[in-house]
Design brief:
Helix content is 19%, strand content 43%. By secondary structure, it is of the alpha+beta class. It folds into two domains: 26-118, Beta Complex (RNA Polymerase Alpha Subunit, Chain A, domain 2), CATH 2.170.120; 128-201, no CATH class.
Length: 203
Amino acid sequence: MKKENKYKILSLILAFILWYFVVWGKPIETTIQIPLEAKLSKDANYKIEFNPSQVDVKLEATRSNLRNIDFKNFQLQIDLSKYSQGVYQVRVPVENLKLNNIKIKEVTPSYVMVIIKKISTKKVPIKVKFSEKIPRRISLIIEPSIVSIKGVWDDIKNINEVTTKPVDFEELQKEKIIYVELEQQEFGVEIEPKRVKIVYLAR
């Protein structure tokens, strides 16, 4: 190989190394959005709302260091174990983010509003809903006839009964015993159990 060719190859290698360090070794800034998560005590029974529900975090690092971290599953945890029901302004603990070789330059906002609502339970009766108008009064046994609903008190205080999903009367007459799912409630209210047994008492 000629001496000139050797110099050309060496120049290309040095150019590539220089390009690599300039592009991948030079620190850059980027901003990511990280959702907030509440840390509660084991026996806590609260619903937590953050406003906003995520924060913008400005980072400084090399491209290679940024590529090595998967930010998709990142969450920033805020310790609320000592808080009770109410509305608070809480500092975002950006120091809880553990990022190797990455500098955290700024978090926006630095404080968020936290709304803590106590979860309550209530027992209500079941009402059977038919898919069509039934021809006469009938006798039924519903097991259980009362279910528990669980949610924020403001969401459940006006719920006085839970209805079943539409029941086919002809099917009930034929089968005598059927299992029916209960209608889902709004606002994330939970029902337990989620279905009931209906027994048709033929006259």
